[in-house]
Amino acid sequence: MHGVLAGPLQVVSSEGLSALFIGLTPTVCRNCIWNSIYYGTMHVVRWPQGSCCLSLGAEAPGSRRMLGSVVAMAALAARRTAD
Length: 83
Fold this sequence. Notes:
By secondary structure, the chain is an all-alpha fold. The chain has two domains: about 1-40; about 45-83, no CATH class. It has three helices and no strands. The model is unreliable at about 55-60 (pLDDT under 50).
């Protein structure tokens, strides 16, 4: 059998249905931690209105703040690795 379902069907037939969920728990835990940190700090780190050095054009509201958060988090990560 060839196609999209050939791989999952072969895994289920040889290893059982639970084999499809190996690695799900670590992935969910990692994403929960990352999303908590990212979205928890996104509203704290903001660019003042009009001070963004990049021209984003007609963007959705809040995208300047999101860009500021990403830049600030990258700067903090770079500073921590340099220390």
